[in-house]
Amino acid sequence: MIRKIAFVAALIAAAPAFAQTATAPAARPVAPTAIRQTAATPETARVDVNSATADQLAAVKGVTAIYAEAIVKGRPFKSVDELSTRKILPADVFAQVKEQLTIGHK
Questions:
Q1: Is there a contact between 36 and 70 (Cβ–Cβ < 8 Å)?
Q2: Is residue 90 a contact partner of residue 97, using CB atoms and an 8 Å limit?
Q3: Which of 25, 26, 41, 77 pairs as cysteine with 82 (C-beta 3.0–4.6 A)?
């Protein structure tokens, strides 16, 4: 019984230390270098489906050479969603690549 009481007392005494440890990482400000690392890089740049070559479209992860050729043949597009509605890309492939594609505005 005395051991249980001592154990509970130790936990209660240590509770503030646990609380400070758990909240400390969330309270830290984000370093400016971390913000620069999330800036757009060539890997995250969007590809214009109306002006990109078949090779550029095939470089998008998830777009095969066959899909790239179909995109080129189906031009022009008014929106990226047309790739799915016109059945140029299957729904699962479209869902995977739609954030990597864009329609250029002139």
A1: no
A2: no
A3: 77
Which residue, among 70, 76, 69, has the nearest Cα to 51 in the 3D structure?
A: 76
- Regarding whether 63 and 24 lie in a shared domain, the answer is no
List average pLDDT for each run of 10 residues in the chain, which is 106 residues long: 74 66 54 44 77 95 95 95 95 95 80
pLDDT digits (tens, 9 = 90+) for 94-106: 999 999 999 986 5
- Looking at the fold, whether 25 and 51 belong to one and the same domain comes out as no
Q: Is 39 inside any structural domain?
A: no
pTM score, whole prediction: 0.57
Whether residues 55 and 14 fall in one domain: no
Q: What is the pLDDT of residue 7?
A: 72
Q: What domain range is 11 assigned to?
A: 2-29
